[in-house]
Amino acid sequence: VNFVFKNGIHHKPKNPRKKITREITAAVLSRKQKMSSFLEWKDLKIVYKRYASLYFCCAIEQDDNELLTLETIHRYVELLDKYFGSVCELDIIFNFEKAYFIFDEFILGGEIQETSKKSVLKAVNDQDVIQEEELEEKRSVLEDLGLA
């Protein structure tokens, strides 16, 4: 398991982040496929789901709802699938900013902010259009200056 997308542990110093990632990876990989997608880890619960070669993991507090978290993971994967067309690890690695943007449109402050896949994807596609317009504008300026 490679954690290609980590959100929520940025407030930790780099070395503890690596240790946390290693520990969670080992805990998830050591479980048999038929075991539940929930495990206790320190004072948290780890909720994870495997989709093909990708693992999506969330660390939640003891009183948080595991099934809601599992559904949230599933919804996020649906959004990624819709945007990338059957998401794979390389999509996330080479387009991590899009994965983060989709996540940020879907989740805010650890809470679901938008349940409509259509609304989330519209916001992402609108951002893509704005980004493409800005790139085109920069290309035009460079051409005008004879630098392109």
Give the CA-based shape. Answer: elongated
Largest sheet: 3 strands, antiparallel
Strand content: 15-25%
- Write down how many β-strands occur, each being a DSSP E stretch of 2 or more residues: 5
Termini Cα gap: 42 Å
Structural class: alpha+beta
Describe what this molecule looks like in 3D.
It is a single chain. By secondary structure, the chain is of the alpha+beta class. It has one domain: Beta-Lactamase (2-Layer Sandwich), CATH 3.30.450.60. 54% of the residues lie in helices and 16% in strands. The protein contains five helices and five strands, in the order αβββαααββα. The protein has a three-stranded antiparallel beta sheet, sandwiched between helices. β1 (38-41) and β2 (44-51) form a beta hairpin. The longest helix is centred in the C-terminal third of the chain and has 28 residues, at 117-144. It starts with 13 loop residues before the first helix and ends with a helix. The mean pLDDT is 89.
Could you provide a short overview of the structure?
The chain has 148 residues and is α+β, with helices and mostly antiparallel strands. The chain has five helices and five strands; from the N terminus they run H-E-E-E-H-H-H-E-E-H.
Index terms:
single chain, 148 residues, alpha+beta, two-stranded antiparallel ribbon, 54% helix, elongated
